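Section: Multi-chain targets

For targets with more than one molecule, the full set of components is provided together so that the structure can be written out for the assembly as a whole rather than chain by chain. Components appear in the order listed by the source. The example entry contains four components.
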Amino acid sequence: MIVVMRSAATKEQVDAVVARIEEAGLKAHVSVGELRTVVGVIGDDRTKEQLRGMLEAMEGVEKVVKVLQPYKLVSREFQPEDTVVEVGGVRIGGPEAVVVIAGPCSVEGRDQVLSVARAVKAAGARMLRGGAFKPRTSPYSFQGLEEEGLRLLAEAREATGLPVVTEAMDRRQLDLVVQYADMVQIGARNMQNYTLLREVGRVRKPVLLKRGPAATLEETLLAAEYILSEGNTQVVLCERGVRGFDNHTRYLLDIGAVVVLKQLTHLPVIVDPSQAAGKRAYVPGLARAAIAAGADGLIVEVHPDPERALSDGPQQLRPAEFTHLMRQVWAIAATLGRAPASLTAV
Amino acid sequence: MIVVMRSAATKEQVDAVVARIEEAGLKAHVSVGELRTVVGVIGDDRTKEQLRGMLEAMEGVEKVVKVLQPYKLVSREFQPEDTVVEVGGVRIGGPEAVVVIAGPCSVEGRDQVLSVARAVKAAGARMLRGGAFKPRTSPYSFQGLEEEGLRLLAEAREATGLPVVTEAMDRRQLDLVVQYADMVQIGARNMQNYTLLREVGRVRKPVLLKRGPAATLEETLLAAEYILSEGNTQVVLCERGVRGFDNHTRYLLDIGAVVVLKQLTHLPVIVDPSQAAGKRAYVPGLARAAIAAGADGLIVEVHPDPERALSDGPQQLRPAEFTHLMRQVWAIAATLGRAPASLTAV
Amino acid sequence: MIVVMRSAATKEQVDAVVARIEEAGLKAHVSVGELRTVVGVIGDDRTKEQLRGMLEAMEGVEKVVKVLQPYKLVSREFQPEDTVVEVGGVRIGGPEAVVVIAGPCSVEGRDQVLSVARAVKAAGARMLRGGAFKPRTSPYSFQGLEEEGLRLLAEAREATGLPVVTEAMDRRQLDLVVQYADMVQIGARNMQNYTLLREVGRVRKPVLLKRGPAATLEETLLAAEYILSEGNTQVVLCERGVRGFDNHTRYLLDIGAVVVLKQLTHLPVIVDPSQAAGKRAYVPGLARAAIAAGADGLIVEVHPDPERALSDGPQQLRPAEFTHLMRQVWAIAATLGRAPASLTAV
Amino acid sequence: MIVVMRSAATKEQVDAVVARIEEAGLKAHVSVGELRTVVGVIGDDRTKEQLRGMLEAMEGVEKVVKVLQPYKLVSREFQPEDTVVEVGGVRIGGPEAVVVIAGPCSVEGRDQVLSVARAVKAAGARMLRGGAFKPRTSPYSFQGLEEEGLRLLAEAREATGLPVVTEAMDRRQLDLVVQYADMVQIGARNMQNYTLLREVGRVRKPVLLKRGPAATLEETLLAAEYILSEGNTQVVLCERGVRGFDNHTRYLLDIGAVVVLKQLTHLPVIVDPSQAAGKRAYVPGLARAAIAAGADGLIVEVHPDPERALSDGPQQLRPAEFTHLMRQVWAIAATLGRAPASLTAV
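Its structure, encoded as tokens over all components, is:
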């Protein structure tokens, strides 16, 4: 950690900074430049992180520059090799496999979820998604079938062998989701719901953690760190678009985030092209880009009849469109030496 | 609601849209232009809102334009006169009073919170803030004194008469906060935690709802609508900066949001200059701007010794700096015909 | 065009809007809803566009909704088939070919540019890039070799047969660039330099137009419309990243923009992964994503010795890295039925 | 400047970095931490800045942290006292005066500009604005009266004594503007048009430089540095809103930028609330906020008949609205010890 003093900082201010550092049990290394004095801080990382804000608050300090990243368990430096997350027999992460998760935005009924599950499995999907508890911007929108939705997802898993991922937004929902599903999704709106992150960190189920629309990569990795620090290391990150300024797409897919995250962390990284696109016509291009960029998988919304969907109809692919997309996805994955994950549980 | 068809839309596609509208019990009004056909939708608002995504998902549809806002209870159209929220005898909202809430970022100990409470009261603050449960980006940062912090806040209220606002992040914390505090804060990270919004909507305490850093004004108003729709109409909105691209300030204070929200909604709107600034030196300018723009109040972080603060030291004002700022704030408020709120409870 | 009146609009205000529309020679169609009155405007597009701001300025008007896009010559509705831009025998655009442009950020000397030109040609690049006039954020940074740089680019073309693209920032530079180069680049910082757009619209050379970092897609297309409206239809659009809030990458590559632009316009769309990445390690992932998303080509920075580059060293690939990337690019292009453009001029 | 090495950096990589620094005539100071090695770079600033990109491009380097700002002439460190820019007898900048510039978006005719000039002068404006050359997003929009517009502005100055500011977008326009006007505006779209910045730097007229909608404060200050480095020190900066994600306002007014810029630079800083608001109803709140935040002035659009304005009608105030706003502005300015600038030339 490096403390950069203002050019007008007095000797007393520099001395106070040094004293503050030493008082915390760390070592200070002062370097007097022509225009500015810089103080290096050496010692225990945790202590440094706690001291950072205090030093920034001191008179004469211009800024404090971190040399180390504030996250640890999730970083590649801590664990160089890829984490592989196993969900009901499907392995996500590692250099070879690409995993596609697909299904309806919301679970709306038995026929709907079963027909979609069969169709996406036939096209190569290896996990089923479907919302039972739906976070909706408006309190007046359809909020999901709740436990009935979970039951239908479990039924679809019985019928197809596809493990199931679905979202939980609070402790009560989490208890239910854990009973029925194979993986718990923490949605973008709850990425910094630290209570929920800690709770899901204590659960024995893998977690799909979506990046918030204004979250930096550091904030995203620290959200994952909350989960890992509670003992649950089975976390998959998901880029789903950040808040942009052009309204042709619903969110701005940050494809660079996929590339960067794969270098910063050992956790698997997948992409949700449906949320980002907001429009069916834009989903395939984003999905292909994600795989080409190096994502470990996709989560795609598919609906048998989008114009009757109870949520997000405009962005859901029809099964035939999904099947066509999957052919492109597998071809691109192959150029990078990757193949569809196998479905050992079936 | 207006459905704009693509220029290449076929007659069959237009007919299908009309049929879909009529099937939902609404009326369609078709207008054929030279290049495009436009279909007006007339009838019940709730039904229209539910139909919107379905129509957007149909073939041949370019976009669906809302004519009405998706929120209702929070809108000025629904209630033209200002809502006045009463918190322990202090009235927030309405054309005359300006309410300043002040206190430490985190409650750290009895002396700290008592000394700050007395200092900010003397300078004209009418409510006390202080975090007992702290949402921290890193799991390794100080997380608050929890119930002990609540007790100290209550003690400071006894000593000064200042009503207390503090944050709750989940149901358990909410139950505790409601026992000790006069107003519940929902933080920016939880603005779209719909479970929490519904729970706080069922509580008999006023709510301070902070805008999320990537939330549109419509999303912010819909978050408030969640609370009002559960029966709790005592909601104060708070602008605290959105995610920007320049790192001199921590967030980008959206001063225009204050101006716009005051027109869109009858709820009081206050501003948090401390979170937005991230640096003590920038807080006064933002605070003055907020009052000049028409905000109904401020929430400001004050600490007796920022360089020893356990959270957000760099952005906390010292008591003397706060006192100086308050003089400017009251002078600006006076030019707009506004004055400090009275503290009836003392 | 549709005028949405406020719910509180008076009959006089609606009448005034109708009168204003009819005065301009257009027809007004009034539709009175339960809560709001909506006025449709029918007639000549140009007149409607001019009237739009005036109507928005009238009392009682809430908003004016465009039904038609404000651009014409660049739109797919105006010209459904792809434009193919020919640059010195290389054809950019159309469903089959993918064109890769590569070369150093700045031209720094004969050996540098010749060695890069030969290396990128061998790897499959079909055009040479290189800055002779450099737009630099700081006035104290290296500003390019100017005309000497253009001469070296022309020499490299003689040696390799690769057509050359290079940037011009004003009229004087444009006159020189036109003499030496095969295509003129308008950089992101000048995307809304309308004088320059008009001038390049009158030149008989193809244009590479980069999207500005805060430009909406509509603004980008209108910038191209400036060029086409002057008679130059040979325009290639380039996405190079927008301003984002995370500093791991230099800009946030808007991969969705590629997908959307390919639907909105008939002009070719290419991607600059180097500017967006800002770091060599992130370039390949972005480049692969661009091709997978459907881009018609890439423009990539390559330098024989990045740690001695006079500009943007961190983001320039070494020739061997570029060669490796090209193999991946051609493999991905092939999965979409596309191949490297041919180099007929050699 | 500080070079942070990757944790996996080898001794050879560190040695290469040190060698590169010394080869450039600078001194390297190596500090080996537990996890990372950090190399301080000491010596001439210009050389350091040139070396920065090269060091970042080297193997084993994680990032290079600047300790010094890249701008010089515009910084408060270089010149602590406020610059006061004199425009036709009106002084902008310094702790006492607040200068309001007002006038129509576009000059549309003699009566329009004269009537507005008289009205805004009566309300306390001390300079006249009005566009003769208009940068318009669409090539089909009204582009200004050009030289005829300049003549009308000069005529209005004769009639009222108000000095005139108007925009130039290229060299030819600049030559004309210099003949007729008292101050040259460089618009937001041309903030990084470096050719134009250099040209206006060689002119003997004060410059109003608007911040681009995606420009960081550092980029904005470096744009001003271009002008100062050519010898023209008479530059006023203008915040006019950055690109935001909510469409209620046209741009997001970055009020914090005013506060920060006043600390970073000695140049005067004013605010354009009209461009940011995009809607008349939002202008007064933004204007008041700007003065309260510490801006040295405002530039406000005023039109006698906004619903007939040829550009930006919705955001132009009527003269009576402007007069009302000015009363509030002067009252707020007074609370900060500031008063309207005097108009010595009349």
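The CA atoms of residues 81 and 266 of chain C lie 6 Å apart.
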